[in-house]
Design a protein that fits this description.
homodimer, alpha/beta, Aldehyde Dehydrogenase, Chain A, domain 1, Aldehyde Dehydrogenase, Chain A, domain 2, 2 domains, 7-stranded mixed sheet, 5-stranded mixed sheet, globular
Chain lengths: ~500, ~500
């Protein structure tokens, strides 16, 4: 029997989400915090079983999976903190002004409110942190939106078990029926984003899959915001000074980063710009050859990896430095390619296409002008990274603005893999990194599921607490243009 | 000779915008404020000539046009204030945490940065406030984005003269060449939104035109944010208590609102829900008959108005209370229709279609249940309005959440026309009110042209002032989760 969610069942789940929405939207922060805490605890309590299921389905190492389950709980707790702090509603109040130059101004009070039921598409490569109880689910529930989650087919049992834990936790902590549901199958995924009851969607996955869903979302009778996190090349630039100063640690760090999780990360560094002919290249080759092979996530990923690796190898001027290949049973060892800066500029489109798996390309550049020309060819990417020295840090006036325009996070002397779960993190970027250039990680990810509403001349009795004169939530509000946590006294 | 902008000229203008962008993006707030002040002054200084040109092209009354020019300067000054205050960049700083449960956390600092060259499509019905030097231009320039403005064909001379004033002001105040340009013609408008050099777009106009451009924007190789403000029905609900208490002032206010500017406002109240059989209906009919005819904006608007008025009159159950009709030479007097609540529910789709011009429909509802059912049928709309009494204000628990979900602004005991230019104003709403449910009026409109970027482990020398330890701009920043204007001392 197929495990795919049929149209009748999907319809039931959507109806339940629509019924739950006003209840969730009206729930105060304390209630929603309790739900998030409960889900975080439920996932943590089920960690052993979840890790066992995921190890079997994804072939990811146990240590990595244990860390990822922990990260998933930390993410849920971060959004509980966001609710506790409360200022995410961005409250703005203009008191009436009878003497404005354009005529009397009314009392206007604006805040962010939840957008409605949200569709979430889980990732293949993060069975927890970007799946059933991952960032999109956590941020949407925190915002006050019910979630219908489309499971990734690569880890169905892990998804189902996580969903049971989420549903138990929500039920046990008093969340309304319909706050969360799991659906499976491509047809259900397609129907979900097209359904008028879904008000916004989140996605983590491939450019092709994400773009197809984005197209459906924007071609609806009433188009919706589709926050897709698609593909990213994450170029890393090593300056001559940095290569001279610390080639060994850069070689270590780079190889660890591009082979982490067998390169199956959206933040994998896919390009490393190194000074042409530098000994750093040899050090990287040596380290790459030392990495043991591992098993890729699943057959579709392996097929895509093989074909994109082959495409890269065919690009004019590309040399194979390490040929890890792809063995039987999804096994792969890292591959390393190289190309000159001039050849990169000649085939930038092909070399800027993401290869999802344990391969990276060294671009040996000759001089700053060639490097700057290469950077100008970059497409949108989640991250860009600079390895430089203290002296060189003083002189990045030309480079940094170019990187900012092309990426959502600029990193100095570090590696793009490993995305800290914090208030300031931005995990987004210009297309194709994301579809709307917004973050799916960190506290501000909650804003994807919120929309602004103004209350004009509203009676005190109907104003939400965030906008009332008394300011019972002690928010920092903009009152007549000035930020203040004081209540309004009149 | 055609005044349309040809492909070669458009290409030149786009190239100039791309060159100007890094200069504008790097300009500090004081510089951009000077540009906005200069444009505001330039428009104010040219007011007499602009009003004369616009009166001829749009047939709008002189008083209205004078007020609109003044409003346009006020809008530009509001965004200068936003820059002076500075917190629109939403600065967030996480200091390093070596002891985090998920491993050491790096220094991460996030702010909003300008998105790139912006395409703006001017409106027909606001030749100043939503045209060449209007809200979209003002907010985009404030954000640090060059603007290429597609003029509306309904007022070409007004647009050209305003553009000259804008260009003079920008030149005179030191803005880089390429900061602003005017283009004309449908082909240029289509090419603009499809050009890869344009990073986002703003639009104010019809559902058909806006949706067509939205489709082009989202079907690009790299889709962009398209902020369209399209169509809105702006329903107003009069409770039985309010109708009994103050029918005369409601009749006056309603007729003034739906006939203001001959109903050619996106905030025109297109539906008024009144208690069935109430004397208020007769009072509204009387007031409507007293309104003098006027001349519509231009022939395409008149044609659209005639056809949508005819469609409304054909809806089953619709009665014509006042037939203002459409005379020769674009002259029209207000029309008033009515329908029962039951008939409204039977033909909600047709009755919820915007009729752009001086017509409104009274819906005579029988009881609260019928009213709530009608509200549930509403599509997205810029505004919803409630006229109620003090006693009834206490008991809107069922109604208000329904209105919030369907509109961007909820108004009590007022009228939707007249959108205050303030910090808290929201002029947006769910589709088709807008395409991305964001505001095009008020201080927060600047956020449409900004995107987030994080700096990870950035050397002090390359950090923008907004993110530096010293906090020279005295911003209120979120540091390790807490809002503070203190510098960081380590």
């Amino acid at each position: 029997m197929s495990s795919d969610t049929g149209p009748a069942r999907l319809d039931e789940l959507l109806t339940a989400a629509v019924s739950a929405f006003p209840v969730i939207a009206a729930a105060d922060a304390t209630e929603r915090m309790a739900w998030l805490h409960a889900v975080a605890s439920g996932v943590a309590a089920g960690a052993d079983e979840l890790v066992r299921l995921a190890a079997e389905e994804t072939h990811l190492p146990l240590g990595r999976l244990q860390g990822e389950v922990q990260r998933t709980s930390v993410q849920l707790e971060l959004f509980a903190e966001v609710l506790q702090e409360g200022n995410y509603v961005d409250a703005i109040i203009d008191l009436p002004d009878p003497s404005s130059v354009l005529g009397p101004k009314p009392d206007v009070r604006r805040m962010l409110v939840p957008i409605g039921p949200v569709g979430v598409y889980a990732a293949s490569n993060f069975p927890f942190a970007f799946s059933v109880a991952g960032n999109d689910t956590a941020s949407a529930l925190a915002a006050g939106c019910p979630v219908i989650l489309k499971a990734h087919p690569g880890h169905p049992e892990t998804s189902r078990r996580t969903a049971e834990l989420v549903l138990d936790a929500l039920r046990g902590s008093g969340a309304p029926k319909g706050s969360f549901a799991l659906v499976e199958g491509m047809d259900a995924g397609i129907a979900l984003v097209q359904d008028e009851r879904i008000a916004a969607a989140g996605f983590t996955g491939s450019v092709n899959g994400g773009r197809a869903l984005f197209n459906l979302a924007t071609q609806r009778r009433n188009p919706i915001r589709f926050f897709g996190e698609l593909g990213s090349i994450n170029p890393v630039i090593v300056t001559p000074g940095a290569a001279d100063e610390r080639s060994a640690s850069i070689a270590d760090g780079f190889v660890a980063s591009f082979t982490l999780g067998l390169g199956q990360f959206c933040t994998k560094p896919g390009l490393l710009f190194v000074p042409a002919g530098h000994r750093l290249v040899d050090e990287i080759v040596e380290r790459t050859q030392e990495v043991s092979p591992g098993k890729l996530l699943y057959d579709k990923i392996a097929g895509g990896y093989e074909s994109s690796l082959r495409d890269l190898q065919r690009v004019p001027g590309v040399r194979v430095l390490v040929d890890g290949g792809l063995g039987d049973g999804l096994f792969a060892a890292p591959s390393l390619l190289s190309v000159s800066g001039a050849h990169f500029l000649g085939s930038a489109e092909q070399l800027l296409t993401e290869c999802f798996g344990p391969t990276s390309v060294l671009v040996e550049y000759s001089g700053e002008q060639e490097l700057l020309a290469a950077v100008q060819a970059f497409h949108g990417t989640l991250t860009t990274t600079i390895h430089s020295t203290d002296m060189e840090n003083m002189d990045q006036a030309g480079l940094v603005p170019l990187l900012i325009r092309r990426s959502g996070r600029v990193i100095w002397n570090g590696w793009p893999t490993g995305v800290a779960v914090t208030w300031a993190m931005n995990h987004g970027g210009p297309y194709p990194a994301t579809t709307l250039d917004y973050t799916s990680v960190g506290a501000t990810a909650i804003h994807r599921w919120l929309r602004p509403v103004s209350f004009q001349s509203a009676p005190a009795a109907v104003l939400p607490a965030a906008l009332s004169d008394e300011n019972p939530l002690r928010l920092v509000r903009r009152v007549n243009g000035t930020l203040t946590s004081e209540p309004i006294r009149r």
